[in-house]
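Notebook, bench 3.
Goal today: get a predicted structure for Cytochrome c oxidase polypeptide VIIA from Hericium alpestre so we can plan the truncation constructs. The sequence was checked against the plasmid map this morning, with no discrepancies at the termini. Length recorded as 59 residues. Pasting the sequence as submitted so the record is complete.
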Amino acid sequence: MPIAPITGKLRKRFWVDLSTALGLGISGGYAYWYGIHLKQVQRQEAFYLKLEHQRLQQS
């Protein structure tokens, strides 16, 4: 009793893997950008603004 060949399995798995990778990659990118990067930029801008105010007060 031969086993029937499995056809289309690789193609289906490829699309699942590709869509999962893109979904997780985009989600991770947004999480990093809005969760970490923008907070660091805001903290950096606040530091330089404070530094500029100090420089103006000394002049």
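The CA atoms of residues 38 and 44 lie 10 Å apart. The chain has one helix and no strands.
Flagging this for group meeting.
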